[in-house]
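question for whoever is on the cluster today: can someone run the full assembly for these? two chains, 635 residues total. i dont have access anymore since they changed the login thing
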Amino acid sequence: MLDTTREWGFFLARRLGFFVVSLILVSMITFGVTNMLGNPVFLLVGTRYTEERLENVTRELGLDKPITERYINYIGNLLQGDFGISRYTFNPVLDDIRGRLPATLELSTYALILGVLWAVPAGIIAGLRPNSLFARFVDFVARAGVSMPGFWFGLLCIFFFYAELHWFPAPLGRIPRQVGAPDVITGWYTIDSLLTGDAEKFIASLRQLFLPAFTLAITTSPSTLQITRNKMQEVLGSDYVRAARGFGLPARIINRYSVKNILAPVITMIAMTYGFLLSGTVLVEVIFSWPGLGLYAVDAMNHSDYEPIMGVVLLSAGFYLFIYFVADILNALLDPRVRLQE
Amino acid sequence: MSAIPQLQDDFVVIRRPSLYRRLVEANGAWRVNLNLAILIFIIVLGVIAPLLPLQNPVKPLPLERLNPPSAEHWFGTDTNGMDVFSRTIHAIRIDFTLAISSVVIGVVIGAPLGAISGYYGGRIDDVLTRITEVLQGFPQILFAMAVLAAAGNSLINLILIIAFYNIPVYSKMVRSVVAPLREVEFVQAAKVAGNRPIAVVFRHIIPNALVPVFSQLPLSCAYAVQLIAGLSFIGLGVSIPTPEWGAMIQNGASQIVFGKWWVSVFPGLGLFFSVWVLNNVSDILKSLVVRRA
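^ ran it for u. tokens below:
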């Protein structure tokens, strides 16, 4: 029960504790796996090296110290915002990430909005009329979306809507070069162009955004759709809805009650989708040359530079855990039954 | 179509309907037959691919680069002049082999972990459950990139990393079956009879987890195939000339803006179709789990 401020305090503290412990676990696993399996020294010294050079580089990178000490150093640096330095852009990884994060956030947010706008209403309608033609259609789209490899679907979209029909611009980044990026305020081109009142740039960036966002929406929305439909059906068959019907309540009100009851699982699923999207954009970013975190990580990988990858992995995992944490609290605020379980 | 009691001498023998019968009952004959037939067809095609009169999948024909589909090359040729049709079919072999081996490793490690955590409960259970939850939120493609960049880009590492993602799936599933069984009478009886814990777990508890685990297998394979293709697409895992769907899609990715669609579209269709069928088969098998509960 979460009735008093005190109980809310305990609840928040416990969730925060989970969040922090999970973050530590993530960093330990990532650091442990990458550092115990490989040795970055060989990437630096190349194929022809002397023992002496090998030792020098090892000492330079601090790799001669035990792994626990290296881990503590790494975490210490992370807490000060130091993700290391990229070996191919020669920038601090944090600066690189800061420049690219808005691109990925913008893409995944628009993808999420598109997906939710389709999945939730469609799921509710399909749940209300489980045997209708529409429900079958929805089911088909969900199954196809789950099985669709996003990077391939993106290519199909490029082929049809760019190469054949010319409805959308070339898949080359966030805004056409001749239009030029808007002044940086938030880093989100659609918002920045609105803030500076530049309609041309706004429309250009929206057009550029649409295909990748649509691709991601199609491939990530099915889980939300399915959970909405299933929960809706479950609620409609439940005793309290039947009782409400028995009392002769109008369908409109019953539907409103039912929708309220499916909120918690649907919100959790949407949150998980959003958490997944930040890292799930990787392949789609490659297809559309979208200059976000995913493309950054792929470029780094192609240059055998793994500090940026580590940074992006930790950031995405942290983002996922954070979204999950927020969803937990949101659920407790919205759904009295969740509060009761606490 | 429930079981028909049959009179044999004086006994009424009620036969449990066969597995196939129960699947058909829950899903409809049409759906079961079609999906199983397609899955078997894909697997058989992969197995006998070297025996079929296909063109050499790894032989580049420098004079026939990027030819559109024709009578000679049904799916056209790629940027190296290799036959896309033959490669799309040969790709079944590597994609399915990698997927199945990684899933099997995941099950072999994950299922016992789940059984231990569910059977003993307490501190071990708490720790394992927490680790499982964290692993499920991992940015899988990115993490795989980090690992393959650090540990070397080999097929063994690719299999291991995907197996690593499958461990929590199965440990969580087996745990959820085992935990409530701990207090059930037949398990208590086995314990009281003096069986060692290992024997109790393996003989009396694990069999209950078989149906959920088996129905999850095709789904995990579908996911593994998608992941393998995705990683190969960005140049990890399998690379040209080995025929693999993701790497083949990558080969045609830069051609698609010029309208040369066949290089990427056909391997993508193979990938999409296989994943779809595996997902469907998993759905069909899941009906067994629901009916038991």
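summary bc i know u wont read the tokens: Chain A has a mean pLDDT of 86. Residues 98-335 of chain A form a domain with the MetI-like fold fold (CATH 1.10.3720.10).
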